[in-house]
């Protein structure tokens, strides 16, 4: 056996040995307060119950001062949003710092906390994880996802000997994280490669995050290509890019509440949406309060209305440009 083949086999065996039953829960999920008017769903096969609206982490680091961010996060939690999104690199760490401050005074126990790591190696992942734990002021992060799996080589790097997957599994065993997932927004083919690579190493992801919106069905569709595979594997689906930043709304083909209702109608656990003000928070809460699953006819009508704009390629820029590729702008973070 050649050395590289031996290393691949050894890595796969090591990952399999440290991963118990592919659908095993890490512990009994805690019960969190639930509010009337909010929707709650199961998170894949984890046994966790979380809010179907998730608070996007990037936008809560953009306020002019920390007090605004903290008040916004706490208002979201008080209103029933339990799923909190974040990332090691959002606003150079400021998003995590402010979320950590907001989760003091008893708020941590009310939230399901998620963040993401850019690191592809064991060493870089560990360094970033320790920084995130400190910023978030917690001993345990509920879910940590590999951020921006957007290149065909990303799965191989993560699952390579001394790759980030080894660090994630060790962190889970040490109680620093509870669940493991991955994200990406570029091409469903990369997501499918990540899922295939995980299967080769006998590893089961708890979650997968992807763009799911009213234009996705028309071009490089995660909804059509990735969701069926994730559902079959019992993976919790996290929807993002409901508005494509602001670009999908700029197309004038859909209203905000309608776009959120479309996302909530799909077989997802959570729709993560950017919330940067009390007004936008109220918009998300209204979407939850007024939600009724869209009928097939209603969904078909929306997709017909958005088709022409979607095919222009100007509204899902996260798929067609590097504008939203944080890891591409800072490749050193991947090391």
From TrEMBL:
NADP-dependent oxidoreductase domain location: 52-245
Name the record gives this protein: Secreted protein
